[in-house]
Amino acid sequence: MGLVAETAIQKVDVPHEDGEWFEIAPLSWAELETARRLKTDDAIKTAAMFDAETLRGMQTTSEAAPASPSDGLDMASVLEAGIKRWSYSDPVSPENIKRLDEPTAMWAFEQIAQRSVVSQDEQKNGAAPLKGHT
């Protein structure tokens, strides 16, 4: 089915916090589009602060790094759309998501991105199974 449904929600254990877990869902195309647009807007604003030589150096450095599913996605929008529930006593909300420590936020961001972004190989096969599910 081509629809992202509640059945796609997966419970994943936080590897660096014993006993803690998140329930996350892959993002829809509209949520991914928003995350990409926000990241692009931010990149354009950042690029405006540098001269051409500096930007060329930054581009060379980024081309050497391996691609990740989270590349080009805005972290805050991915976390807000993808985190459905968690084991913490505070409820999931945009404000509480912003309170996550960096290691936990980065881990959750990567988990959601892995389940949301379709690789070129998956596009060629015409289907994208959920990745990294537990």
Write structural notes for this entry.
The chain is mainly alpha-helical and 134 residues long. It has one domain. It is 49% helix and 9% strand. It contains 6 helices and 3 strands, in the order E-E-H-H-H-E-H-H-H. It has helices at residues 29-47, 52-64, 75-82, 94-98, 102-116, 120-125, and strands spanning 10-13, 21-24, 83-86. Strands 1-2-3 form a 3-stranded antiparallel beta sheet. Strand 1 (10-13) and strand 2 (21-24) form a beta hairpin. Helix 3 crosses helix 5 (102-116). Residues 127-134 have low confidence and may be disordered.
Structure characteristics:
3 strands, 9% strand, three-stranded antiparallel beta sheet, mainly alpha, 134 residues, disordered C terminus
SSE topology sketch:
Blueprint (H helix, E strand, L loop, with lengths): L9 E4 L7 E4 L4 H19 L4 H13 L10 H8 E4 L7 H5 L3 H15 L3 H6 L9
Antiparallel strand pairs: 1-2, 2-3
Helix pairs in contact: 1-3, 3-5
Helix content: 40-55%
What integer is the average pLDDT? Answer: 81
Biggest sheet strand order reads: 1-2-3
Strand content: 5-15%
> Segments where pLDDT lies below 50 for 5+ residues?
127-134
- Biggest β-sheet description: 3 strands, antiparallel
Overall structural domain count: 1
From the alpha-carbon coordinates, what is the Rg to the nearest angstrom? 16 Å
Order of helices and strands: EEHHHEHHH
Shape: globular
- Tell me which oligomeric state these chains represent: single chain
Q: What's the total number of strands?
A: 3
In whole angstroms, the N-to-C terminal distance is 20 Å
Given helix and strand content, the structural type is mainly alpha
Helical stretch tally: 6
